Amino acid sequence: MRKEVRLFSIGLYRSRNCHLIKEEIVKVVVKMSEEKKKRNENFWRWFAEHAEEFYETVNEQENIPKDFISLVSNKLGNLRNGFFILAGMYDDDTAELIITADGNVSIIPFIEELVASAPSIPNWKFTALKPPTNRDDFEVGFSHASLSADNLFFTYKNHSAYPDLIDIDVVHADITDATKRVFTQGIFIFLENYIGEMECIDLIDSIDVKAKHKAKGDLVPMSMLASFLKWRHKELVEKYDQVIESTDDDIYTGYESKTIDGNTVIATINTKLLNWEHIAAYPWITVLTLNYENGSYGMPSELDYQLLDDLEERVNDLMTKSQYCLNLGRETGEDRREILYATKDFRQAVKVMDEVIGFDSPFKISYDVFKDKYWRSLERFRGSE
């Protein structure tokens, strides 16, 4: 845990953008892309070979878990962990396979790629992510209640400091402190199917679940949620869609803090961007974490420091290929370096991070991509300017 962050110099660091992609990076990326393409092709070739019997299983609705769900799930697991599937009849003659990430943004780009590469197979429709049902009678039942547009409501929470934050409470009369957790699970399942999986991720920033007697503000029928979100999204697109920022000439600021054990943590942060008026145009934060060993008091050795810098530059080469990526800075200490980016969309960042995980490196590499429309995860640096 860290104590307060202390500013130790201003304007010390300038962003370092390398505009030439190193040949070794290109080779790694091309090789990984070719391997992924081949694996996707092999999956669809296998599926096409069994398409007729799969269709009969889904159409007759007999032994679907054993003769379809289990077989397809195992094959998808060979491609990547985190793929889940749903199946049913799209119409009288067409079966549908829906591949879902259950809201995990680090999986979504690869589902979309897989489905986009699907061949045309008679009597089959393939869908990436749960689509909206577009049905007023849709409901999700579980042990405590049946959730539907008839008994669910929502309220919109307005934040004066964050005017474009889409923060809603979903309200049901029967929620208690004891049942809130199971209601929350059921409500998220309902929303992903009712308005769509991607819509939940893309259009909503924060969701809480409330009992009716604890709700504040006007209760709006759930049937109005999709139109409300589309209206707000249209406003945001008009406001931010054409906003593009470059960090090429930005000046970074150095910070120093102490952990409760007295060890030093240092950071270089793009403070020009922290109070930029259009940060909501880049709502997705990527944190790349590089864990090192054999340091001193949480700081890397001289050799590791150079290797960390080299790896960071390689990652910057990949991330800054997109004009929709901002380099926010880095933080080093507690046996790790965290490199921070903000992007307009999560897909390219996830794909780059997936490539970085495959790098030959002496460090343990991990990452997180999450929505943080106002960069509140960096609030500690704003307070130190």
In words, what does this structure look like?
With 385 residues, the chain is an alpha+beta fold. The chain folds into three domains: 2-17 and 247-382, Alpha-Beta Plaits; 23-128, no CATH class; 145-222, no CATH class. It has eleven helices and 16 strands. It has a seven-stranded antiparallel beta sheet. Strands 9-8-7-10 form a four-stranded mixed beta sheet, covered by helices on one side. A three-stranded mixed beta sheet has the order 2-3-4. A hairpin with a 4-residue loop joins β11 (251-259) and β12 (264-269). α1 runs antiparallel to α3. The longest helix is centred in the first third of the chain and has 27 residues, at 23-49. The model is unreliable at 1-22 (pLDDT under 50).
Shape label: globular
Please tell me the overall pLDDT. 90
Instruction: Report the total helices.
Output: 11
Number of strands: 16
- Biggest sheet layout: 7 strands, antiparallel
Return the CATH architecture of the largest domain: 2-Layer Sandwich
Order of strands, widest sheet: 1-11-12-14-15-13-16
The total domain count is: 3
The fraction of residues assigned to DSSP E strands is: 25-35%
Low-pLDDT windows of residues: 1-22
Kindly report how far apart the N and C termini lie.
Answer: 21 Å
What fraction, in percent, of the residue positions are helical? 25-40%
If you compute it from the alpha carbons, what radius of gyration comes out, rounded to the nearest whole angstrom? 24 Å
CATH class of the largest domain: Alpha Beta
Class from secondary-structure proportions: alpha+beta
Order of helices and strands: EHHHEEHEEEEEHHEEHEEHEHEEHEH
CATH fold topology of the largest domain: Alpha-Beta Plaits
